[in-house]
Specification:
single chain; alpha/beta; Rossmann fold; 7-stranded parallel β-sheet; 6-stranded parallel β-sheet
Length: 341
């Protein structure tokens, strides 16, 4: 494709997905922002893993969703037939496939790197290949930490969310929202619940530690499992806890704060840049459950006026720096630079 060609004709957001998580939420928010900016946009899921809640959410906002394995075409063929002008991949499977087939589809490829966890076993091998092939795409990283792990410079653009209406009265529950896996620290969350047995805790998410988490959860913890989305659930929460061992910039934290739910977290990944201790939430040293427990106690014992101010500060933080309106221009600048490579 010639340099300077118009890129706004058809942007394809590609990913491989089985459920709703941080990446899927980001793709939906980005897709809606692109549509609102007048850019024709399609979500392309690589494989059919059965009914997917993302599809209905996308269609509700007028965002087309296609599934590559239903199309009887390779990725390069599909992109050509559908007159794509730029491919934006999310997750290692879409990233690797998009870059390796690049000589055939001849489109600029932009890849967003959402996760700093290198994984183990087969996942570690795929992650290594994802990072190695990142030399062949224009890249976005959701934190400086992730950018530093890549072999070529990536543009750091924080995750962003759509701003919801002003919330009503907050709930009382202390929440965990995320994948139930080692790096997200669900075991730390259960330890916090044991330390605060008089408070209601709730967990949303699925993953390899689901059965273990459910079996070991104390009586004050409700383990809900996977839900199609959190839009109707944020009002249940008074505080979101992110006890992660590793992070990029979690969408759950951004969504929570946009709904006026403060975040208490370990200072890992992009969280220290998002959460201002005592202003928009609480930060503790990575892995220090005792300190994070103290932050929870501080929040519980705070006056209603103090908590109200924190809720307002959390929303303002997202509006100013992490809303789709604030960050879409940065993404479009990467698109334009990719077209000129």
């Amino acid at each position: 494709m010639r340099k300077g060609a118009h890129i706004m004709e058809h942007v394809v957001l590609a990913l491989d997905s089985r459920a709703i998580g941080g990446i899927e939420t980001h793709v939906l928010v980005l897709g809606q922002a692109l549509l609102n900016a007048g850019v024709r946009t399609t979500i392309l899921r690589l494989a059919d893993h059965g009914p997917h809640p993302m599809d209905d959410q996308a269609r509700n906002i007028g965002l087309p969703v296609r599934v590559l394995t239903r199309e009887r075409a390779s990725l390069p063929q599909w992109l050509k037939v559908n007159h794509a002008t730029l491919l934006h991949t999310h997750g290692y499977k879409a990233g690797i496939l998009g870059r390796l087939t690049g000589p055939r589809h001849r489109l600029p490829v932009v890849s967003t790197f959402h996760n700093g966890d290198r994984g183990t076993g087969k996942l570690a091998a795929y992650t290594a290949l994802d990072r190695f092939t990142s030399r062949w795409s224009s890249n976005i990283a959701v934190s400086a930490e992730i950018s530093a792990s890549l072999p070529r410079t990536a543009t750091v653009i924080d995750n962003f969310v759509a701003m919801p209406p002003c919330p009503g009265n907050p709930g009382r529950k202390i929440g965990f929202v995320g994948r139930l896996s080692q790096e997200k620290g669900p075991d730390h969350f259960l330890e916090l619940a044991q330390r605060h047995a008089d408070m209601p805790f709730i967990m949303f998410g699925d993953g390899p530690m689901y059965a273990e988490t459910r079996a070991s959860a104390p009586g004050n913890v409700e383990v809900v499992g996977s839900v199609p989305g959190m839009a109707d659930r944020w009002t249940d929460l008074g505080l979101l806890v992110m006890p992660s061992r590793q992070e990029g910039l979690p969408m759950a934290a951004l969504e929570a704060m946009s709904h006026g739910v403060p975040v208490a977290a370990f200072g890992v990944g992009g969280l220290p840049g998002l959460v201002e201790d005592g202003v928009t939430g609480y930060l503790a040293e990575p892995g220090d459950v005792h300190e994070l427990s103290g932050r929870l106690a501080t929040h519980m014992n705070a006056s209603e006026d103090t908590r109200r101010k924190m809720r307002m500060n959390a929303r303002a933080r997202i509006m100013e720096g992490y809303s789709a309106q604030a960050r879409l221009g940065d993404v479009l600048a990467v698109y334009r630079a990719a077209m000129d490579r």
